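Supplementary Methods S3. Complex input for the 6-O-phosphono-beta-D-galactopyranose-bound model.
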Amino acid sequence: MKFPKDFLFGAASASYQVEGAWNEDGKGVSNWDVFSKIPGKTFEGTNGDVAVDHYHRYKEDVKLMAEMGLESYRFSISWSRIIPDGDGEVNEKGIEFYNNLIDECLKYGIVPFVTLYHWDLPQTLEEAGGWTNKRTIDAFNKYAEVCFRAFGDRVKHWITFNETIVFCGHGYLAGAHPPGIVNDVKKYFEATHNVFVAHAKAVKKYKSLKQYGEIGITHVFNPAFSVDDKEENIFAAKHANYYDTFWYYDPILKGEYPKYVVDELKKKGLTPDWTKEELDLLKESADKNDFIGLNYYQPKRVMKIDSEEEFKANRENSTGAPGNPSFDGVYKTVMMKDKVYTKWGWEISPEGFLDGLRMLKKRYGDVKLYITENGLGDEDPIIEDVIADVPRINFIKEHLKVVKKAIQEGINLKGYYAWSVIDLLSWLNGYKKQYGFIYVDHKNNLARKKKLSFYWYKNIIETRGEEL
Ligand code: BGP
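Predicted complex, serialized as structure tokens:
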């Protein structure tokens, strides 16, 4: 089978991780510009001041994407480039940059797939309480509308938010992302709710503009599976899916929160400060949402936590590797002897991907899906000047086979975006953890070089994945 004609083969990036030019052409300061400079927050103190200088080299980069045969480029817009202080004046230079980037993509027939929020919040808004302050909802709505009006004639695919669970979880529970707060569960749920409301408002606004494109949200797709058949662990996995998947997917796709979680939050006094008007808005926007984007890296293997001690001992782990206890001390994620892991301890599991997709279909029916991220973080070997990223080729191959199988099973999957198009800045892991098809030489003026995976993916796209 070849992949269907309307299936998009793409690759992704995010503004803070590639652009650099952090204080150029009127850009305001973002929360990440500030947070990454606090000693000890990122690997070796890396930050996005220069990143891989995509801001100045976008023409060279898009040309390489075109050479790779990429059909679509998923990138994000930096809010503080468009509205430097969050909700004030628009910065025309910022609009100009994304106009140029979009036009450059279209010149080669590359479909721009645009994320409005990939974590870099204007610092003024962060200081005013970030996503726990409802002012941020209105500010986002204004920013989104500016983008729709400026770029919507050419951009027909919009993602409002990237991975709410990560920026809220790391921001208010693990303290590993801005605003760096540890263990404030009340704020965590408050922030997630405000994001869902902001999403619903942006969807409503987008539809009212009649630009006839599509809009959705991207979530982490991290399905939980019990480590064994013990009832307590099966329960722990169910609990994990309710809190980490259904809490995020239900308000978008069903227009309401899962009762199981709502009831528990109520008992614990953790219910977000929501209004009837907001809940009605979620309800109303559920069938206006056009798709869900899934970022899949790994499943989680879950078991019940049986001692308080363990819960405390593992609090600090926040890189994505198993070992994290849940905030409520009900379950923990674990590494298993019979599983395969990356150098950073992320499980490699195409099987978990397929099982997870089936789980989604069961709960949400035929909703349209894009895989908006999937990829292997690795230290690529350079052998006689060749960047031999064979493990990445194998990783993507096995996951694309799952995508094909899922389509054959009737799962409504319309595109695949590898993370990432080019080596870029990992939020917490610096430049050491590489994901790209294009290598960036940090010792030689950020020169670009094609990896083996570049040629491999080019062939997959040209042949529409027939050999997979
Ligand atoms: C996702 C983010 C990406 C990217 C990726 C890899 O959660 O959306 O921006 O960073 O994970 O993560 P890491 O760089 O930590 O390996």
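The pocket of 6-O-phosphono-beta-D-galactopyranose is lined by residues 14, 17, 162-163, 166, 295, 320, 373, 377, 419, 426-429, 433 (CB under 6 Å). The two ends are 8 Å apart (CA to CA).
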